[in-house]
Amino acid sequence: MPLVVPGINSTMGDKSEWVNKLMGKKISDSSTNETMFAKKDLPESHRILEHDAMKTMDHQPNRLNIHLGPDGTVQDVNYG
């Protein structure tokens, strides 16, 4: 039986959906295509984490974290 924690698991989206949409792409200010994904198409609660950048350690279960690699492409996606 899967673990269900009220307020965490029940309100989060599916990570795999965002992995499929974002992995290997760069984040763009305006357009979405095969190599870019527009910021305007991301969920309202998100943050883009540049490679080796400092970040806060606050946990927000509904926030999509987009981790960029050194070349600016998406390397990982998670919630928190």
Structure description:
- The chain is mainly beta and 80 residues long.
- The protein has a single domain (15-79), classed as Trypsin Inhibitor V, subunit A (Trypsin Inhibitor V, Chain A, 2-Layer Sandwich).
- Helices cover 10% and strands 26% of the residues.
- The chain has a three-stranded mixed beta sheet, covered by helices on one side. It has a two-stranded parallel sheet with strand order 1-2.
- It starts with 14 loop residues before the first helix and ends with a strand.
Given helix and strand content, the structural type is: mainly beta
Span between N and C termini? 23 Å
Order of helices and strands: HEEEEE
The spatial strand order of the largest sheet comes to 3-4-5
The structural domain count equals 1
Number of helices: 1
According to CATH, what is the topology?
A: Trypsin Inhibitor V, Chain A
The CATH superfamily is Trypsin Inhibitor V, subunit A
Instruction: Give the tally of β-strands.
Output: 5
Question: How do you describe this structure in short?
Answer:
The chain is mainly β and 80 residues long. The chain is 10% helix and 26% strand.
List key phrases describing it.
about 80 residues; mainly beta; Trypsin Inhibitor V, Chain A; 3-stranded mixed sheet; two-stranded parallel ribbon; 1 helix; about 25% strand; disordered N terminus
How would you summarize the topology of this molecule?
Layout: H1 15-22, E1 26-28, E2 36-38, E3 46-49, E4 64-68, E5 74-79
Parallel strand pairs: 1-2, 3-4
Antiparallel strand pairs: 4-5
